[in-house]
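ok trying this again, last paste got cut off
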Amino acid sequence: MPNFKPATTFEMAGRPVNRMGYGAMQLAGPNVFGPPKDAQAAVAVLRAALESGVDHIDTSDFYGPHVTNQLIREALAPYPANLTIVTKLGAFRGSDASWQPALEPQDLERGVHDNLRNLGVDVLDIVNVRIFGNVHTPAEGSIEKQVAALAELQQKGLVRHIGLSNVTSAQIAEARKIAPIVCVQNLYNVVQREDDALIDDLAAQGIAYVPFFPLGGFTPIQSETLAGIAASLGATQKQVALAWLLYRSPNILLIPGTSSLVHLRENLAAARLELPDVVLAQLNELSSKGTED
């Protein structure tokens, strides 16, 4: 498995962005539903992220719904010229906080207008269409209708660039026949590596890969091993797991989310963590630990 000394930036949609970004999902209330307990604390986290060099924020109007986009607007508008805001479509929230698919062309158009209104912009930088698949893992099936709908909105000047989330290699290939794809968001972390080949393929094509759930799904022995490695480096487990992703491939961009200033600073510090070769070798083998039985 290749490992790359982390560069600080990667070009996405024609613009260099810092590889350590910020995900806004956790700014909403419990279960990503309703407002946060302390809206001003959320505003402070967003402003601190930008002050620390973050220039890539991931959000969606179905977080809340509407909550995170409205907080981003309150905290950051008028937006800096170098800020890339990536939003996503493909779902709506039921009154019971459930996540429901919204993938018909009219749903996507409505979602674009919701994001435009709540972010307070005339055009969206990047819009990811989130395919439901098997909840957090992709399932094969045509996505032509969804990508074509976004491409039409792009032609109308409402969307600059298109991305995909929770998709397979075949779906990415199908989408690229319709419109350029600038990023892919899939489940991937130091132990869940089903996308290894896909990441390398996308890197060769200059397409950003943005892992969601960069932590989670670890077995007890994997967690124990990671804890030992982190202790040896004077870092946290989360910092080591995030740093490994930056070493994994130069096209990986990170969007760890938090509503805490302390955790924000901890996450951003992971970009400065150096992983010696012996540690990288241990981490590269972590996916198989505790799974042999």
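PB: full thing came through this time. Residues 20 and 254 are 5 Å apart (CA to CA).
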